[in-house]
Amino acid sequence: MDQIIIKDLELFGYHGVFEEEAFLGQKFVVTAVLNLSTRKAGKTDDLQQSLDYGVACQLIKKIVKTERYQLIERLAEEIAEQLLLTFTMLQSVEITVKKPWAPVLMTMDTVAVTIKRGWHKAYLSIGSNMGDKEGYLDFAIDQLNALSDTKVTAVSDFIVTEPYGGVEQDDFLNGALEIETLKTPEELLETALSIEKETGRERLIHWGPRTLDIDILFYDDEIIMTDSLKVPHVEIPKRQFVLEPLSTIAPYYMHPVYHKSVQEMLEKLQERGC
Question: What is the reported pTM?
Answer without folding.
Answer: 0.90
